[in-house]
């Protein structure tokens, strides 16, 4: 089973698309944006989940890096 939260590869203009259970949550420019998307989705302690592979899959690029590809 894949992680319910996917942080996609950095875009050419910077930022990373975030999907939660296949639904687009938004474009994150830092971890704070991801945490806010997850909070809005009902996960109040989301900061603790960012490095848990069972919850978050970082695709294409290093985790926690949002610079343009």
Could you characterize the architecture of this molecule?
- It is a single chain.
- This protein has one helix at 31-40; strands at residues 5-10, 16-20, 23-28, 56-58.
- It contains 1 helix and 4 strands.
- A 4-stranded mixed beta sheet has the order 3-2-1-4, covered by helices on one side.
- The chain is α+β, with helices and mostly antiparallel strands.
- The protein has one domain (5-58).
Name some characteristics of this structure:
single chain; about 70 residues; alpha+beta; four-stranded mixed β-sheet; 1 helix; about 15% helix; about 30% strand; globular
Fold blueprint:
Elements: E1 5-10, E2 16-20, E3 23-28, H1 31-40, E4 56-58
Parallel strand pairs: 1-4
Antiparallel strand pairs: 1-2, 2-3
Short description, anyone?
With 69 residues, the protein is an alpha+beta fold. It has one helix and four strands; from the N terminus they run βββαβ.
How many individual domains? 1
**Fraction of residues in helix:** 10-25%
Rg, Cα atoms, Å: 11 Å
Strand order of the largest sheet: 3-2-1-4
Extended strand count: 4
Major sheet attributes: 4 strands, mixed
Name the structural class: alpha+beta
Shape: globular
Mean pLDDT: 94
Assembly of the depicted chains: single chain
Distance between the termini: 28 Å
β content, as a range?
Answer: 25-35%
Spell out the helices and strands N to C: EEEHE
Structure annotation, total helices: 1
| Uncertain spans | none
